[in-house]
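Quick one: structure for this chain?
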Amino acid sequence: MKSLFKVLLAFSLLLSMTACTAESKPDKFEAGVYQSTQTGHHGEIVVETTFTNERIEQVKIVKNGDTMMISEPAAEAICANVVKYQTSEVDAVSGATLSSNAMMRGISDCIKQAEGIEDATMPEAEHLTKEGERYDIVIVGAGISGITAALAAATEEDNQTESDLKILIIEEMPFIGGSFIVSGAGIFNPYGTEDHKNGKLDIIDEDTFIEYLNYRNEGDPLKLTSEALQRKVYQGIDPAEKMLSNAGMPFTWYDIIECEVMDVTFPKSSNHALADVFAFTKTYSSLEEEFVAQHGYGSTADICGKYLETALQSKSNITVKLNTEATHLLMENDNVIGVQVKETDYLKNTVTEYDIKSDKVILATGSPNLNSEIIAKYDPSFATAYPFSEAGQNGDGIVMMQEAGLNPVIQGYGGMCYNGTSLQYGMEDGLALYTLGYPVLNTDGNRYYDESITAPYDTGKYTRAQKDNTAYIIFDKNCEFLNGNYLGSYAGVLLEGENLYDYMVRKGFAVKADTLEELAIQIGLEPEKLETVISDWNKAVDGELSDDLMAAPEYAFSVKEGPYYAEKIHALSIESYISLRTLEGSTQLIREDGTAINNLYGCGTLIVSNLFYGTYFNYGGGLTTSLSSGYIAGKEVSDLLK
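Got it. Here's what it folds into:
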């Protein structure tokens, strides 16, 4: 009996201990619904996360201030993967890194609010292979030049009837359009508006257009450009625009650009990235209403991208693969016969590699602005600028050719380089503002270029030559940017109850002081020197002193009334003109020995130095030449296959 009692007692104690253990097991989360607001690429992203005591039950993006067509694929993948793998540390979506990071920061913050425990990890992607595919033409890159090349190859000479060719566009990003959809520039069409065509204004002829391109090249000192290709680009602009219009993307004339140096006028048509153009058209309004109804707002980049999608969908012989990166060129007997690709499925967490063979390959991979090794090797002076590009400008086309042993001719220098505050492309990390007409001082307190007339896209080339690629813009309370509740040219969202530069002071991009002496101390300059420089500046603006650097005092502003501000700036490279040489008058790429590379062609900024280099062409110059060179490449390749 005693033995039985002992057994029962032990069993009772065991049950008691088990119960205590079960009761004392802590919850992983404090159940509930939590929200977190984070700053994305262009605006606020609000994440809402629902928890039970045991798991992350649901993640939603309840407000998305970023471009929908760029950030929405990231939102879908991240929300699904966080729930699937029970961790906020999931893979960012290529091409939407800033939006992805903002969403993951928000989810992590929600977990902290729920006093959560993160003990799970996302597994590495499963690597798969599959059978290859076959097309007549493969185009690498879905920016404006790649899309235009595809449409040109997909249609007959009338730019409407479909050809018999099967065309594939591959794009490593989850969206199409590249820089085109976020650019504020337009397309120059030298053929002109109706006023030009009716004789009221002079049409810009081919020779004048080429003269202007070469003027921007400073006379083409390195003899890099191809006059034959420049002429083809001139001839291709108008039909390229008409082709896009026929495919569902109309263009609207909205501006005339004056070139005072050469006394020529270039009409400019909209690329649909400007809201003020389409606010007056039925097409924009209806599309905007559709986006607002579906998403709560209508982004101009989304609308521009929608037009491009419509254009591509109008052709049954064009296939588009997103999240698909070209990793290698396929070679056979010294001929390019296709590309090897890596296709990422963020929802399935898989990466699939396979070959795509084709008769012709067109590289539309953009400039190498984000590839520090290429920039440092071929344009060291440009390497001191901070890269400030949209994702994708990685020099992939150049790298693939080098790895295939094709020895391409890499040429050109310079590019589009602004002064700005940012070290990263995105609102939270900078604004990329340039305050024109105010004095700019390097870290020694000296001015170093003409602030009165230097074009914004040329300012950076002077700043990048300064010590530490750093300078300061000095201005006072009368600066126009202090008199409006708006963020600068790259952020595009409203501030409430705070002017622009007070926001910048709060964020650490600028400093503010009641006197110049106090301002000088804050930025590390000698007070007496700063006061002297600003005094001389004001005298030059007022016409009391001759200033060798200030050619147009009428475009400059005095700095006389506190409080004073100093914006810390750097040279920001938007686009590099390091690019690939083509066969004379052609888009076919060549080797260092001058021989053509069989079946391989290029377009867009990948071949821009054949047209211009060194200094930016003008607002819309990159879009114009990309549009037309894509059209030329598509027609050149399709004609050969027909």
